[in-house]
Amino acid sequence: MKPEPQHHIRFARPALDIEAAIRFWVDGVGLPLQGRQEDEGSGHKLAFIGWPDAAWHLEIVEDDTLQPSPSAEDLLVIYLGGPIDEDVISRIEHAGGVRVAARNPYWDKHGMTFTDVDGYLLVLATRDWS
For 60-118, how does the pLDDT look when each residue is reduced to its tens digit (9 = 90+)? Predict the structure, then answer.
């Protein structure tokens, strides 16, 4: 077996507060919450976030032993292919996101960069992926 385009991809990130992370990604960015797994004595909680028909999902992990450690290159980029809706910007900021200058000026030229509630970077790109 080898990786193929139809195979599902999981991106996992630790969070200090899973509820705050869900607010950012679901209420702010607008990605649907696909499911949750509550702590059942394991010391961690999970949230699965992403579009239902996409071949990927973002998994948020709240674990007593994990600390988020984002770097300036830990980017999650959503290619919008057009201008960023002002309502989306407001929702992201209201849900705890903070607009920041990108380390790479390319992203400031072609979009907006936000930190999520754990300091990871989200770029809303005005370009298409191609």
Answer: 999 888 889 999 999 999 999 999 999 999 999 999 999 999 999 999 999 999 999 99
In DSSP terms, which residues pair with 99 in a beta bridge?
114
**Which one-letter amino acid corresponds to residue 12?**
A
Q: How far is CA 23 from CA 18, 44, 123, 130, in A?
A: 9, 18, 17, 30
Residue with tokens 């509820």: 19
Question: What are the structure tokens assigned to 126, written together?
Answer: 């005005």
Tokens 């607010």 belong to residue: 23
Query: Both tokens of residue 6?
Result: 């139809």
- The Cα 39–Cα 35 span in angstroms is 14
Start-to-end C-alpha separation, the chain: 27
